[in-house]
Amino acid sequence: MAKASINGTELHYDVIGEGKPLLMIHGLASSMQDWQLQIPTLKKQHQLVLVDLRGHGKTGAAADYSIPVMADDLHHLLECLNIEACNVMGISMGGMVAMALAAKYPVKVDQLILVNTATSLHHTTLPYRTLLKFRRLMPLIPMPTLAKIMVHSLLPGDHLHPVREVLRQRWQENDPQLLSACLESLITTDLSLWLPDISAETLFIRGDRDFFSLTSAMACCNAIPEARLHTIKDSGHGTPADQMLAFNNAVQEFLSR
């Protein structure tokens, strides 16, 4: 693992494999480690650029957690790595960062994969919108308890217990103050007007039980000029984990076009 000083933050990243670069962007409370189920497959044909976003993983705290600033971080990282253009994949909050990166810096992004994401958190289903109203209580909840609640919500089912346990152990290392700050920034995010500026060929992958609405996913695909929707059955928000094979196959098929 390496680090780069970018926009006043020590951004931790890793580069694995050979081939066309693929920048992989994790979601809220996550880190580059949560792509472990994809790395063995994708590194065979791609140079994977993995990164911990500001306030996540080994990357430290920052004053600003806005999506455009995170996109700027990644643009500067690509510049530091002398990557002129790459493919980009982002999940959830990482999908928002990927959208902003593709819209602000279109020459940097050839193919774009958006996974279980939306232009705004207001496109979640009603139970999750209700939970967002209690977001300011997050710093008061012990992180091990919060991590357990989050992984059970995102990856339900007894068959996913081993994956849940790995994620729980990772996620409980988060700082609830930083997560709360990131969530506050996300609440004000709306990227809907950015979508027409995305010129990259785009695949939108959605689990059929994701808490971001199908209507929102379809709206994204209609607004991005070169986008199509791919639905993965029996999957929630954690599609790369709960339907690993179907997800990896969809990603590989798209990137081989």
UniProtKB/TrEMBL annotation:
Keywords: Hydrolase. One of its GO terms (molecular function) is hydrolase activity. It holds the Pfam family Abhydrolase_1. Transmembrane segments: none annotated. Residues 20-237 form the AB hydrolase-1 domain. It comes from the Bacteria. This is Alpha/beta hydrolase. It comes from Kistimonas scapharcae.
